[in-house]
Write a structure and sequence with these properties.
The chain is mainly alpha-helical. Helices cover about 50% and strands about 0% of the residues. It has a two-stranded antiparallel ribbon with strand order 1-2. α4 crosses α5, α4 crosses α6 and α7 crosses α10. The protein is globular and about 100 Å long.
């Protein structure tokens, strides 16, 4: 499946024409970038029942949780967030509909990935609804998915050009210019492609980077990781002159993609701020106690104490002889012989404390 007629960077052209194929794909991506660019204008505080940036970030993090829970590929998350942002750009949405739209965008992205890989989807709509706790039904998600597809005019067999596609394309454009020895090249970054995808997930889930050009976002992330590698290498040995050729190639790509300096610097500042804030939260110790609040119905499902009968015989008080006390017969009880289940609490609030 092609992306709206573009040659996908996953393809393997011949070695002689690889660069021509990549630059042809780059030109087609540049023509389609504006079409798939979200333009969010969300307030920080809701005054008239509007969706806020916090609600948008919350929806993005729900999508990422679903991605991690079902071990989905990164492109599913990136496509789902892109659908969500573009839908909010075109439509005025009430906050109560955000959970259903979130699951609907994830459902569409899973369908698109299944069609692209020609594999059956492994996650059903019912499972998405159950894990996301969106308080909607599978029918609601199916209807909302049709609304999103209709409003965004999604053609069958096409996908948007996202920052992940730009990231892979830029990495392949830099690869032929990799100098030797390889330890000072971008090949280290390519080998750590999973780390780049993780950084991309962090960035796209933050509303501060939602309106950035996807090409700028990918170029900033690629050179951010490259700078980290060069700084680590400079601590052990001097950097050779040809290591700086990669930055000259980056400047050429910036000029080729018509990225102005002010916009690129602004995108870089937002990306660094988002990553620094994420690292600060990850480094902070977790002191909050985890409390699971379970309803009586859920509690009975986890431990079926409702089936335990109370058909114990009455204990007669015998003060004159201990031997006269009748034997206690529990034959009328349906409880298990395991003593651990006898003291299961029936409170709807079960605290679970973490040692962190």
């Amino acid at each position: 499946m092609q992306r709206a007629g573009a040659r996908h960077p996953d393809a393997s052209p011949s070695t002689s024409g690889a660069m021509e194929e990549h630059y042809a794909t780059l030109n087609e991506y540049l023509q389609m970038e504006y079409k798939f660019q979200p333009r969010l204008c969300l307030p920080n505080e809701s005054e008239n029942g509007e969706v806020t940036t916090g609600a948008r970030d919350g929806a993005a993090h729900v999508m990422r949780c679903l991605k991690v829970w079902y071990d989905l590929p990164t492109e599913v998350l990136i496509d789902a967030v892109s659908l969500f942002d573009r839908f909010l750009t075109k439509m005025k949405v009430r906050p109560c509909h955000v959970p259903c739209i979130t699951v609907a965008c994830m459902n569409i992205a899973i369908d698109q990935h299944a069609a692209h890989t020609k594999e059956a989807r492994k996650v059903s709509v019912e499972e998405l609804v159950s894990i996301s706790q969106s308080a909607c039904t599978a029918g609601d998600v199916a209807r909302m998915s049709r609304v999103v597809v209709d409003k965004l005019a999604l053609a069958p067999g096409t996908q948007p050009v996202t920052a992940r596609d730009w990231l892979r394309l830029f990495a392949r454009l830099l690869q032929p210019h990799t100098p030797t020895p390889p330890e000072v090249s971008v090949s280290t970054v390519v080998c750590m492609y999973a780390e780049l995808l993780k950084l991309l997930e962090i960035v796209v889930c933050d509303a501060a980077c939602a309106n950035a050009r996807t090409s700028e976002l990918a170029l900033v992330l690629l050179y951010h990781q490259l700078e980290l590698q060069l700084v680590a290498l400079a601590r052990t040995q001097p950097l050779p002159d040809h290591a700086y050729q990669l930055f000259e190639i980056g400047a050429q790509l910036q000029h080729y993609c018509n990225m102005c300096d002010a916009s690129l610097v602004s995108t870089r500042g937002r990306v660094q701020h988002v990553l620094a804030r994420y690292e600060a939260r990850a480094a902070a110790p977790q002191r909050q106690r985890l409390v699971w609040r379970l309803s009586e119905r859920t509690l009975k499902v986890l431990r079926p104490t409702d089936r335990l009968g109370s058909l114990l015989p009455t204990i007669e008080e015998q003060h004159y002889a201990v031997e006269a006390t009748p034997n206690r017969n529990r034959s009328g009880s349906e409880s298990s012989e395991n003593e651990e289940t006898s003291d299961w609490p029936r409170s709807p609030v079960l605290p679970v404390y973490c040692d962190h």
